Amino acid sequence: MLVTAGCADPGGAGSPSAGMPWGRSFLSTSVIEDGRPRELVPGTRIRLVFADGRLQAQAGCNHLVGPVADDAGQLVVTDLEVTEMGCDQARHDQDAWLAALLVDRPRWTLEGDELVLRTGTTELRLVDREVADPDRPLAGTRWVVDSLIDGETVSSVPAGHEAHLVFDGDRFEGWTGCDQVSGTAVQIPGGLRFGDVTRPGARCDGTAAALESAVLAVLDGDVTARIEADLLTLTHPSGRGLQLRAG
């Protein structure tokens, strides 16, 4: 079986627990500020992930990460770290707004699948990610390569190019960005075992060749596979990897 979202440290602050958010992921459904709806930047959604005693948050641009705990119904987030991705001003401002909300010790309630955070005049409502955005099936979904992973570095697919994979039983086929590709992809615990990878042999150069090289480097042997909502992450033991979105 493939690894799916969730996973926390048993017995730690990030462990799943009835009536607690630990070990769960949530997506925003509404924001009320000063008694009126606050509109998020178009195309963005707030995501909160509680795992391993830490809170991972995103509002459309940077990742916000820090230790998290409960203090009598207040969410306590300390030492919040923020990545430094380049985004437009509107999304940077939204990141700053969310960071301020999280470190302001918001009161929280969790009823079933709905998590509510409240501070002063602000109310943020979220729903369990698995309810709001279920995991897509591996087989039959067209997985389009969204990002290329090389160790700690994540880069976008070169502009004007596309690579994708489609899985069917123990086989896959797709496009590398340069040529067709096919082979076997047998499910193993936590991932996939790729083999007999073939391509007709078309030649390309430049960014198309670089994309193909990055894709083929991952489709080789035993690879960790993780599906979360519409995102499939394939990670090769070498540290190379692919992030693919259903589409």
Q: How would you characterize the overall build of this protein?
A:
With 247 residues, the chain is mainly beta. The chain has 3 helices and 20 strands. Strands 2, 3, 4, 5, 6, 7, 8, 9, 10 and 11 form a 10-stranded antiparallel beta sheet that branches. Strands 12-14-15-16-17-18-19-20 form an 8-stranded antiparallel β-barrel.
- Major sheet attributes: 10 strands, antiparallel
How many helices does DSSP assign? 3
Give the amount of beta strand, in percent.
over 45%
Give the number of domains: 2
Using only CA atoms, what is the Rg? 20 Å
The N- to C-terminal Cα distance equals 22 Å
**CATH architecture of the largest domain, please?**
Beta Barrel
The run of helices and strands is EEEEEEEEHEEEHEEEEEEHEEE
Shape label: elongated
Low-confidence stretches: 6-18
SSE class: mainly beta
User: How many DSSP-defined strands?
Assistant: 20
CATH topology of the largest domain: Lipocalin
Mean pLDDT: 91
How are the SSEs placed, and which strands pair?
Layout: E1 3-4, E2 25-33, E3 36-37, E4 47-51, E5 54-58, E6 63-71, E7 74-77, E8 81-82, H1 89-102, E9 107-111, E10 114-119, E11 122-128, H2 129-132, E12 142-150, E13 153-156, E14 164-168, E15 171-175, E16 180-188, E17 191-198, H3 206-218, E18 221-228, E19 231-235, E20 240-246
Short synopsis of the structure:
The protein is mainly β and 247 residues long.
Summary keywords:
Lipocalin; mainly beta; 3 helices; 20 strands; eight-stranded antiparallel β-barrel; 247 residues; ten-stranded antiparallel beta sheet
